[in-house]
C-alpha cells in the first residue's frame, strides 16, 4: 500500500512499471549519477525513464517470465489430466478440464466452417492461457511486489495481459496464421480477393488494396487493444483501491468491500476477455479457410 515514504502518485507509477532489461546508450547518465561507458551497457532499468530510453532493446522480464510460467503451468496441468483421463465417470479437476475442453470443442464446431485439426487445440490454448494471465489480476496488488522487493527486485508486474507487448505478440501470432492459411487455402485467389473486393474493377485496385489491407491489419490491433485495455483498466482500479486505503481513506467505505466487490465483477471480465479473444481468432481463421 501507499506508505509514508510514497505518495499515491508514486505508488501507482511504481505498480505500473515493468521490470525491464535492455541496453542504455553510451554516455547515458543513470538515476544514481553514474554514466554508461562508450558502447552502451545491458542493465536492468531503474524506473520508466530508463526503460523508455532503452528503445527497442527493452525486454519486460516480468511479463515474459509470468506468461511463459503460466503457459508451462497450463501445459503441465492438462498433460497430467490427459494421463488420468479414462472411460469412467470423471471427477474433481479432471471433470472440470473435460467440461472446458467440451465447451471449446462445441464452440469451434459452431464457429469454424473449415476442416483443420489445429483449430480446436489452438482455441483451447488461447482461452486457458489468456484466462490464467488475466486471473493474476485477482492476486492482491501488494503481495508479489513486496515479496520481490525483499529479494532485491524493485519492480514486478504479474499480469501479462496488461502489457501491450504480450497482447500484441498473441495477436500478431494470430495474424501470421491468418495469412498462412489464406495463402495455403486460396492461393492466388487470396491476392485476387484483396485486389478486387469490394469493387470488382481493375480501376479500383489501389482503393481495394488499401481498404482490404487496413481491414486485415485491424484484426490483430482490435484483438490486442481490446484485451490490453480491459485488463489494464481492471488493474488500475485495483491499484487505486489499494492506494485509497493506504492513504488513510478507508473510512469512506467498510474495509475490503471495494476490493471484494470489484474482484467478483472482474472474474466476469477475466473470463469474457479470454472467450472473446478465442472466438474472434476462430472466426478470423474460418474466414481464411473460405475459398469462394
Q: How many β-strand runs?
A: 3
- The radius of gyration is 23 Å
Tell me the span between the first and last alpha carbons.
58 Å
How would you sum up the global shape?
A: globular
- What low-confidence regions span 5 or more consecutive residues with pLDDT below 50? none
Q: What structural class do the secondary elements suggest?
A: mainly alpha
Residue share in helices? 55-70%
User: Largest beta sheet: what is the strand line-up?
Assistant: 2-1-3
Order of helices and strands: HEEHEHHHHHHHH
Tally of individual domains: 1
Oligomer: single chain
Average pLDDT score: 87
Q: Helix tally?
A: 10
Largest sheet: 3 strands, antiparallel
Could you tell me the strand content as a percent range?
Answer: under 5%
Short description:
The protein is mostly helical. The chain has one domain (61-289).
Record the SSE blueprint.
Elements: H1 8-15, E1 20-24, E2 41-44, H2 48-53, E3 59-60, H3 61-84, H4 92-111, H5 119-135, H6 143-150, H7 164-186, H8 188-195, H9 205-246, H10 257-288
Antiparallel strand pairs: 1-2, 1-3
Helix pairs in contact: 1-9, 3-5, 4-5, 5-10, 7-8, 7-9, 7-10, 9-10
